[in-house]
Each structure stands twice: as structure tokens, then as C-alpha cells.
Amino acid sequence: MKNKLKCYGEEVIIDLHECDPSTFTRRSIKKYFKELCDLIDMKRCEMYWWDDEGVPKAECQTLPHLAGISAVQFIMTSNITIHTLPLLRNVYLNIFSCKDFDTCKAVDFSKKWFKGKVVTDEVVVRK
Predict the structure, then answer these.
(1) DSSP characters for the chain?
(2) Among 73, 95, 104, 110, which one is most buried in terms of CB atoms within 10 A?
(3) Strand (E) or helix (H) holding 46
(4) pTM of the shown model
(5) How many domains does the chain have?
(6) What is the pLDDT of residues 1-57, one digit of tens each?
(7) Element (H, E) at 56
(8) What CATH number has the domain bearing residue 63?
């Protein structure tokens, strides 16, 4: 008899293209995390940034696939990760939680926030 694997959680992977790069700021992304967490009923914890803010211009990333903001918003039940690429006008999001949440709401909200087109919207059930 096989053991049935319990669902540990789920992750939604969202790729947005043709976004509005004016939404790719720390201020906007911080507000996005707050409003998204309120919408999907997640408790926010620590947040961390990886970007060129405060870095001398000569040391800033210039390659289209490297320039932009990356951030992790830890939530009580896991994390939300974002990577923005302003030169390409793309946003890459991963929302993972062992607490159930409405992935459709998360996708729709993200699409509207970044004013982009969803090219990937995939839900992975973690076991």
C-alpha cells in the first residue's frame, strides 16, 4: 500500500511582460507586497532587497537580465520573491506558502499592479 503524500503548500510562478517600469521602485514594490499580503491573507515578516541602490554608477548592473530590483518578502508561512528587469519590462514572481491562498487573486492583482501581460501563470503543489 502506497503512502499518500500530504500537500505541504503551493507556489504560484508568474512571469509578466510588457510591464510599466515606473512600478519597479522600492517604494512601489514594498506597497505591492503589503497589499498583496492583505489580499491573500498572509502575515508579512522581514523583507530584503538586492539592487543597485547606493552602488557607484560604474559598478551598477547594465546587462538586461541583471539590472533591476530583486526582493524577498518573508511571510509567516514562507516567502514571496520578485525580480524586475526594467530594460526588458519584465517581472518574475514566486509566491510560496504552506497556508492555502487564492492563486488567481494573486495573479490578477500582480498583473494589474505592474500593468503587464501574464505569460506564465503556473501553480506547483508542494508535497
Answers:
(1) -PPPPPP-EEEEEEEEES--GGG-SHHHHHHHHHHHHHHTT--EEEEEEESSTTS-GGGS--STTT-S-EEEEEETTEEEEEEEETTTTEEEEEEEESS---HHHHHHHHHHHHT-EEEEEEEEEE-
(2) 95
(3) strand 44-50
(4) 0.90
(5) 1
(6) 445 557 889 999 999 999 999 999 999 999 999 999 999 999 999 999 998 888 898
(7) none
(8) 3.60.90.10
Q: Does 79 fall in a domain?
A: yes
* 35: helix, strand or coil: helix
Is 78 a domain residue? yes
Domain hosting 59: range is 19-126
Instruction: Return the C-alpha cell found at 100.
Output: 492555502
Report the length, in residues, of the chain.
127
Query: Quick one: pLDDT at residue 4?
Result: 58
